[in-house]
User: Fold this.
Amino acid sequence: MTNLVRLQQALGHEFSDPQLLVLALTHRSAGRSNNERLEFLGDSIVNHIIAEALFEQFPASREGDMSRMRSALVRGATLAEIARELQLGDYLLLGPGERRSGGHRRASILADALEAVAGAILLDNGFERCRSCVRRWFGPRLEQLTTRAAAKDAKTQLQEHQQGRGNPLPDYELVSVQGEDHNQQFRVLCRITRPALVAEGAGSSRRKAEQAAARTALQRLADHGG
Amino acid sequence: MTNLVRLQQALGHEFSDPQLLVLALTHRSAGRSNNERLEFLGDSIVNHIIAEALFEQFPASREGDMSRMRSALVRGATLAEIARELQLGDYLLLGPGERRSGGHRRASILADALEAVAGAILLDNGFERCRSCVRRWFGPRLEQLTTRAAAKDAKTQLQEHQQGRGNPLPDYELVSVQGEDHNQQFRVLCRITRPALVAEGAGSSRRKAEQAAARTALQRLADHGG
Assistant:
């Protein structure tokens, strides 16, 4: 039980009732009293906490995009990765057969145990604490999503945005080129007919100017509830 | 907007920001700014609230049974029934095409809107309020589950309990019959080998005595974390 101190630090929650944590770590191979019920509870709360985090983090994303991101985050393989980062395997209680066959490294057992731990935290301390722990566990992966979304170029994003809503695609129009050969400034208009919107962009190449115009258009769409 | 007073009474929540409720009632056919994102959020919170309610209500049920009950409760057809009970259809904002073709009575539109309303309550007032509303909406259906579980006879329940855990089935043994022909008292033992347990039951027929013994056995199993 001493070891559980280190695990609780990694999880971000010190249990009022450490027996709940022990139950969450108990695989069904270890006994009749095991983590299956906690896993049921934990699965649903992890799902919701991730849905809520994505809802906040991507105010302009559509339901379908958020669903896809959530599926990738809460699937077994990802949960098992996070469980490994927290070294959950070291604390699992397994039956002799599972222990011999390396059950403490098995992805499905790790993923289920992580969900059960979330359920145990929910019972031990309520929704707020559970949310803060789960968001911390998934933190780097949630941040990566933002980086990846930002890395997708603005023209592609704008095109997908319009296609996703069955709206016409944007037109780009070069309106001026100024300056000398090696220091030119391009100005481009990005025009959408539904919703009606014209956004301007400038840059040192036509491509950069178009990207800038698309970025402005996306921002305006997001500001209007996209 | 006046009408929304009546709807909010039915829902059990008066919105600080009524625009959230309007958004939740706005089908995608009615405009770019619609309830799809709120539906994503609401779907996950309704799922969790029902999971939590079942977890509390059925302390002896296994994960698989709770999953089945939850699926039945949160499927589209059930959500649409609840939406109809709340008369949600009267308040939906639909595009002209959907309106003409009876979209306000369509199950999928009603179900999605109910989820979106749950998401809107979550944003407007937080988890606790959302939970109390959703539990109220599902209240009669949650109660029916308990009644149905209780109505299932004890011998069947005990058999399913053992099968679900891969344990041997119980044996029933008639140990005595006392009294006169029309006032007999039967005594029966219910015997389980794993977990080792013997329970006794009595009744005016052999069948009743067996049911009584099975009920006692189930109770003891539940007391020991079943």
